[in-house]
Amino acid sequence: MQADLLQAGLYALVLLAVAVPLGAYIARVITGEIAFLAPMERAILGASGASGPQRWGAYAASLLIFNAVGFALLFAILFLQNRLPLNPQGFDGLTWHLAFNTAVSFVTNTNWQSYGGETTLSHFSQMVGLTTQNFLSAASGIAVAAAVARGFAARQATTIGNFWQDLVRIVLYVLLPLSVLFALVLLALGMPQTLSASVEATTLEGAKQTLALGPIASQVAIKMLGTNGGGFFNVNGAHPFENPNAFTNFLQMSAILAIPAALVLSYGRLVGDRRQGYALFAAMAILIVTAFVALYAAERSGNPLHTGFADPSAGNMEGKEVRFGILGSALWAVATTAASNGSVNAMHDSLTPLGGLVAMLNIQLGEIVYGGVGVGLTGMLLFVILTVFLAGLMVGRTPEYLGKKIEAREIKLAALTLLIMPVGILVLAALAIATGNAQSSVQDAGPHGLSELIYAYTSATGNNGSAFAGFNANTPWHNTFLGLAMILGRFGYILPILAIAGSLAAKTPAAATAGTFPTHGPVFVVLLIVTILIVGALTFLPVLALGPIAEHVSMLRGTSF
Amino acid sequence: MVHLRPALLLTLFFTLLTGLIYPLAMTGIGQMLMPAQANGSLITRGGVIAGSSLIGQNFASERYFHGRPSATSTTDPADVTKTIDAPYNAASSTGSNLGPSSKALLDSVEARAKALGPGAQPADLVTVSASGLDPHISPVGALAQVGRVARARNLTEAQLRALVERQVEGRDLGILGENRVNVLALNLALDALRP
Questions:
Q1: B11 shares its domain with B98
Q2: What is the mean pLDDT of each run of 10 residues along chain A (561 residues)?
Q3: Is A402 at the interface with chain B, CB within 8 A?
Q4: With an 8 Å Cβ cutoff, are A213 and B39 in contact?
Q5: Is the same domain home to B13 and B66?
């Protein structure tokens, strides 16, 4: 218990120590102050024909078309994998629906694994296909944050930056250098990096054991830094080659939240008032610490049904690895669902009912508790707009944010995004139940079966990518609808927030007066959290009652299914 | 068109840079400077690859310490549409993914516990690991097996308890993770003690 507290405290300290300087650095990358690769940048942008500052619509169009091209290329690589090089295992091409699902998944930074990793994908697909999109989907998300911060900070401007320039700068100055560094550290700590597919061992008992290998470290580095989460192996970060020891576990957990947390601080710098960043950071910190305490307590308390068979003092060890223990698994589960990373080092399907509930709810809030790189911050800004609107209603003043009037257009766009999670989760899950596709894919009976289904559509819409993996998602129906949920959950947020950035850029900030509602103090932080919980979380209470809460209650009564 | 040209060219550029140059450079550096890690931390015994220090392997004999239950499977050689249990299949990782209120899970936990003895057993020995390849068990889980292995090998329990205690790995950096025993390392030491 004491050792657990020490590890959790160390984690918080390391995150802060990384986020502060990294936030400052990323802000300077976004403004263009960091420019040691300027000639290379100019050459790339010049050759590609990218031109100057864009209005929000053009910025969005560039992003959409870039992501569409990325989708087409990745779909082709996966579908035609059997005809491409670096396929030592001789894997077949993926089915159309699995290729569709996986391509959408990596382009939208979801990285849901309908595929099995070592049993499905060639090295070419993993490297050229998935690793590339790990970089590009993350860079797309950070670019959105950059454009939004610019728009919010600008005065009477028509443009919010150039997408291509943001993209190139983010990859060259942030993602690639960090990934190279991180990959080498992971390699030194035991993570394999080879082009051979496997090695044969003869076990002590004389049996043959095939150890699947591959270029793992290079993919895992960006998978963790870019809130991607799609694993090299089926079991993702639980696999000893993908996460060899408690030290790599700690570093990978830190990498999950490093850039999302740093970007919140970058935002404060970019809008010229660091307190704005601190306030958002504080709200996110309060939510994530609460989630951690709840999930950790649930896993530590173990499974009451197993009393008399399993020593309860060890906690719930089903689906967990000994080297990480309860703390290392609980902390990861919270970080990966709060940020939209979606990697796992323990099987979420086997979490206790309340532990699973916390993981699900983290995603259902809209992936804003640090959230995915870039889009976590911009998702939080949508809630900020709703909060200042509600605060304005209470006192009867026109709401303002950063001195700019928030008017009908901005409120409508922000309110529209409130529909995304309910549609992606509740409507699509209901459709799957009504057509019988849910029933044929769930593994567990009883309330847990519903939890498996809801988790799948929650994860897809939230662009998270973790799973209650007993659920068989690799069917034409679920591959297709989960793919659609990912598209909705990605671009359904990106387009409105870019539109809001465009309209705020054109406004002139007014000087603060005695009547201005400050958006950096504790009152605002509390209001923001309350808004998130009431507007975001309450929608899902009924379905959570039917799934994890019902399971918890029946488990306490000694019922199994 | 104004968007399509940069989209195509930058996709091409970044595919080369991040999809080929980056992973191949990492592979080159890894193979040159850290070949042991880059190739899977393999252990050889008598010139034969005996496994990886990171990956658990299946131990069923009474003469060895056993690892955690594993849910991995493989294709049934008799019928390719079916799968059969194959613990510690390192070519196809998986957990049980059974939910906490699952009857199937409860039955397995009960059966594993009863096979080990009366009363509550170390949790790691009656539950399936996340990967199906967990190389470790808890020190308690290793000590619980001392009696059985001692009988099978004609060693004293005191000798084996000392062996287990030497094999306990502490927390990384003294803080991170849990105390644990690598089952393959323990069994290799056991074979060295009395083949």
A1: no
A2: 92 97 98 94 91 94 97 97 92 95 96 87 94 97 98 95 97 98 98 96 96 96 95 95 97 97 98 96 97 97 95 95 97 96 96 97 95 96 96 89 94 95 97 96 95 97 95 95 97 97 95 86 96 90 97 96 94
A3: no
A4: yes
A5: no
